[in-house]
Amino acid sequence: MDLGTICLYVIGMAARPISTSTVSFGLVSLPVKLYSTGQSSAKVRFNWINRDTGARVKYQYVDSRSGEPVERDKLVKGFEFAKNQYVTFEPDELKAIEAQATEMIEITEFVPAADIDRIFLERAYYLGPARGGARAYRLLSAALREMERVAIARYSARGKQRLVMIRPLGDGLILEQLFYSDEVRSFDEVPLEDGDVNDAELALAKQFIEQAASEAFDPARYRDEVKERVQALIDRKIEGEQITMAPQEEPETKIIDLMEALKASLGSGGAGKDEPKAAAGGS
After folding, report:
1. Is this prediction's pTM over 0.85?
2. According to the model, what pLDDT value does residue 99 have?
């Protein structure tokens, strides 16, 4: 069985829960299981290898002052409060200040689904009902879907308290971990140059968008082409093939007028064409 077949086999396996929890709202307790929304094991991963021995290289902790290796049992966590000055914490001290690991997902409020800006979304997990929770699970999903609302909750697990959102997904539920407000940077920090948009340019831009528009997003249209090439290269090297890569020329970059770039884009028949990209300059 080659690596490509193994990857397909892994992706086809039934989903396994990565954690269990209980969603509480009012006096209702809903046992749930959390599932990963992605297939991280399908990624191509490399290890560092000693070129001379062919053995894998292991990471090692080294004292920055003495340069000597440090055993793991000698390590202690520290917080740098000033340049090269640290206050240290023993494991028992850290454990005492951690959030109590209740593994509960406590719903605190229900808000309109449209109110949650995508900038707050950090990662997502599928929620499935655990034993005995099917009716409450279906009820919560249906109620949220019909009212076009999402549940905001606190999730305490593994010593941390996370802000999460539960929203309906089809007939099911999905849990999305949110950033706290102080973790989200303001867009005001992004420098923006002045630039006027004239009516003619706007009309052409809208025309290009309409030309390349689709009725719905179909993720199946897209695939990781770089990963596919890497996987093919790995397979060829496993078979003993000597790989020689021909040098590739850098794509030509043309600096042209913005109006001309828009007109050329319309003439290309839509987005995603394998043509030299135009770096538009101001008109």
Report:
1. no
2. 54
